[in-house]
Amino acid sequence: MFLSAKTPLLAIDIGSSSVKLAQLEGSGSRYELTAFGIMPLEPGAVTDGMVRDEEAVADALSRLVKAEKVDTRFAVSSLSGESVIIKKIQMPLLSDEELEESITQEAEQYIPFDIDDVRLDYQKLDIQGSEANDFDGMEEDGEEKEDILLVAVQNDLIDNRSDVLMAAGLKPVIIDLDVFAVSNALAIQRDLETMGGVAIVDLGNSFTHVNLLLDGISYFTRDIPLGGLALTNQMGKQYGLEFEETEGLKQGIIPDNIERQEVIDMIVDSFDGIIDEVQKSFEFFSSTSNSSIEQVFLSGGGALIPGVDNLLSDRLAVPVEVFNPLETVKINPRKFDRDSITQMAPLASVVAGLATRRFDYI
Asked: How many C-beta neighbours within 10 Å does residue 219 have?
């Protein structure tokens, strides 16, 4: 089948605690939800962004696709973790052909892996205005430079994800990155190009994904190897609870025999490392962009914890909002329960962003 921008694609987010599926029709800021579902995974099936139990994940995914009665088998998915490298670099101003020829050699100095073991992609950036600092323009040697967003992903991670999708009966046609997918989800409802410095913080189970944008362009991204799973395991051991019960504790469902304040203190303490690393990212952004982060948007499972937005706002001294990626999406009440979807919305940021992608390669 010849693929085009009109070919229906199925968005698949494989996380450490669940697989998620979504499909959106439309474009720009006008979308309608046509498919959505979540299937839980056993602990350990996916760790550090890598599928460890391919059979279990493929089975869960194939059951989810069947349950949602999705026709298309062309899938768009995404990756994250320490096998993903995202760097903003400067290179001499080159033609598209010259850049394509020289990018591999240039990338070697920035990639901590053997260049033969990764797949590269890149995009020219257009950072405008005084906030761009010394990016884009003339260097001291008089040579004109331009900004390039360089992405490198280890082959093993891409192959791992592709194998699972194919084992579930799907055909992977686009592999994106989690951090970019979340920013695409936010762009459905916000005009990021007019918002200055914005941080998108996705609080996952294994990783916290941070994407710092300047006027809608990714300026700095990182995957912090800290997430909610450590807290879940700590609570499970301390209180002798099963995984589902421990997740309930984090969302405020606390049995009478457990001290509420003790749980709250444990949750607050668990964010210390994450907040410290996010703050360091903000400081780097401020020192290199002559701008500052003016708004933080939260997503991911960690955003379901009551009061987490206030906690981060107090510690980071920046307005923080838990965003619903499907808030402005048309939802047919005969097919979906909007209240249920709204409740799960922070979990859907990656898959919603993936669902905006279209096959646009020639």
From this structure: 24
Question: What is the model's pTM?
Answer: 0.88
What's the rounded Cα separation, in Å, for the pair 300 and 323? 10
**pLDDT tens digit string along 26-66?**
887 789 999 999 999 998 899 888 999 999 999 999 999 99
Instruction: Give the burial class of 71: count Cβ atoms within 10 A of its Cβ; 0-12 exposed, 13-18 middle, 19 or more buried.
Output: exposed
Residue 270 CA to residue 305 CA, distance in Å, equals 12
- Examine residue 295 and state whether it is found in any structural domain, yes or no: yes
Asked whether residue 44 is domain-assigned, the answer is: no
Which amino acid, 40?
P
Question: Which residue from 302, 305, 348 is spatially nearest to 324, judged by alpha carbons?
Answer: 348
Does residue 173 form part of some domain? no
Decide: 1 and 64 in contact? Cβ < 8 Å. no
**CATH code of the domain covering residue 228:** 3.30.420.40
In a domain, 269, yes or no: yes
Domain residues for the domain of 196 are: 190-322
The residues that bridge with 77 in the sheet, in sequence order, are 12, 175
Can you spell out the DSSP letters for 34-74? EEEEEEE--TTSEETTEES-HHHHHHHHHHHHHHTT----E
At 115, which CATH number? 3.30.1490.300
Instruction: For 129-151, give one letter per residue: b (16+ CB within 10 A) or e.
Output: eebbeebbeeeeeeeebbbbbbb
Where among 98, 124, 153 does a domain terminate? 153
Number of domains in the chain: 2
Check if the beta carbon of residue 300 is closer than 8 Å to that of residue 353. no
Q: How far apart are CA 204 and CA 34, in angstroms?
A: 25
